[in-house]
Amino acid sequence: MSRSAAVVGCGVGGMAAALALARRGWEVTLLEAFAEPRPLGSGLLLQPTGLKALDFLGLGEAVRAKGAPIDRLFGRTAQGRTVIDMRYADWRADAQGLGVHRSSLFGALHEALAPAGVTVKTGVEVTALADPARPRLRDAAGGEHGPFDLAVIADGAASRLRGALHPRARAPVYPWGAVWGNARDPEGRFAGVLAQIYDRAEVMIGALPIGLGPDAARGPLVSLFWSLPVARQDVFFADGLEDWRDRIGRYWPEARPLFDQLDHAGLSRAVYRDVSAGRWNQGACTLLGDAAHGTSPQLGQGANLALIDAVELAERLAEPRPVPVSLGRFQAERRRHTALYQLLSRALTPLYQSSGGFWSAVRDWVYAPVSMWPGVRRLGAHFLVGAVRLGRWPAGLKP
Ligand SMILES: Cc1cc2nc3c(=O)[nH]c(=O)nc-3n(C[C@H](O)[C@H](O)[C@H](O)COP(=O)(O)OP(=O)(O)OC[C@H]3O[C@@H](n4cnc5c(N)ncnc54)[C@H](O)[C@@H]3O)c2cc1C
How many angstroms is it from 7 CA to the middle of ligand 1? Predict the structure, then answer.
């Protein structure tokens, strides 16, 4: 008889987990708060590790077909000093990242759910979790779901269910976030590179090619971002955009035509949380993805880590052990990988997003020159692709 699983949250992690579990014979119900699940934000960078997990789920080709290959990360100060120059080829000659529109990744995962037999229930905001040994879920409208043999909590960095599993979990908001939007780059002038410009750590402007969006006929897109303290986001959206565009034009004249395409409606806010969840599991329940280990997107790893979580969870649960034991093993396997990237993101974020000149001076005069040394450069490329993991990679996922 098949075992039943509830997955809370129809984001990258939740959908990938639902799919991986269904493929392993679980009867999966996916519960999502939004009436119509949709991708949040604009674009993201998939690393070779995340792409490997998508390949494992049979979705790698569909996502690659819409994305934009990335060979290099390049960042310089407004004065022209190189701060980052990382190349995927420093890891492996043929390696590339993939910039994707969030809807391309979302669409590939979402379309695979029904054929795999996953039941998706939308407009269900799960508010409470009872009896972790045989989980039952309650929603905001008073509905009850379950009992299930397993509950996967993938409701994102702002998870409201995390506290039910681990009351002492913390998820403070980073003081700096960003605004994001997509612009057309019909001639592909920004192709191949995730490019960033900095002025100290108070200005960070970025451009990530993300390939084709939902309206593919209109050509390739670039995801643009502008770093902004969370406390200033309301003011940003209340003000006109002309001064902002002029400022960007002074820092990065070539990018000005792209930023000129953005208006308030085309920009979205992003805030990041630094999640410390302690234990991810209790009884037959586990956290997964950002709910377990959300961090700032400085290293572009969050969605990749969530995809790997999903595949590894299903693999651990396929072993002939009681569910709580498999969940403990799942966290033990994943913890070192996710904690390493959380730690690095935490350490690197002030170098790129902070006030004053101290951290940017550390970045420009210490971090940047050291990161160009050949051995360090190669190590940096390993970190970039997401391949640094203390412990073994499971079969089929080793990048
Ligand atoms: C600006 C920005 C840029 C980023 N760039 C990158 C990048 O380049 N590369 C990368 O790998 N990662 C990146 N990330 C991180 C990445 O977006 C996240 O790590 C990833 O989306 C996490 O997926 P998730 O499924 O865990 O959570 P989410 O995507 O947050 O999904 C959670 C889902 O749960 C639903 N939900 C929430 N509460 C409830 C509830 N109570 N009941 C039911 N449903 C609920 C939500 O509606 C949502 O659908 C970036 C993040 C940000 C903010």
Answer: 14
Phi-psi region of 289 (alpha: psi -120 to 50; beta: other; left: phi over 0): left
Q: Which H or E element spans position 303?
A: helix 302-317
Q: Is 152 among the domain residues?
A: yes
E-only strand ranges, the chain: 4-8, 27-31, 43-46, 68-77, 82-87, 97-101, 119-121, 126-130, 136-139, 144-145, 150-153, 176-184, 192-199, 203-211, 221-229, 267-270, 281-282, 285-287
Residue 244 forms part of a structural domain: no
Q: Tell me the whole-structure pTM to 2 decimals.
A: 0.97
Q: Give the pLDDT band (50/70/90) at residue 390.
A: confident
Q: Kindly report, residue by residue over 73-131, the tens digit of the pLDDT.
A: 999 999 999 999 999 999 999 999 999 999 999 999 999 999 999 999 999 999 999 99
Q: Please check whether residue 83 lies inside any domain of the structure.
A: yes
**Ligand 1 environment, Cβ below 6 A:** 8-14, 31-34, 37, 41, 44-45, 125-126, 154-156, 160, 178, 180, 270, 272, 289-291, 297, 300-304, 306
Q: Return the bridge partners of 229, or none.
A: 176
Distance CA 10, CA 32 (A): 5
C-alpha to C-alpha distances, 60 to 64, 66, 357, nearest whole angstrom: 6, 10, 42
Count of structural domains, the chain: 1
Q: What is the DSSP letter of 246?
A: H
For the stretch 273-295, pLDDT in tens is 999 999 999 999 999 999 999 99
Distance separating alpha carbons of residues 85 and 380, to the nearest angstrom: 10
Helix, strand, coil shares, percent, the chain, to 5: 40, 25, 35
The answer to the question of residue 319 being in a domain is yes
Could you read off the pLDDT of 16-62 as tens digits, one per residue? Answer: 999 999 999 999 999 999 998 777 668 999 999 999 999 999 999 99
Report the C-alpha gap between 159 and 88 in whole angstroms.
33
We report the CATH number of the domain holding residue 365 as 3.50.50.60
Domain that holds residue 342: 4-172+273-384
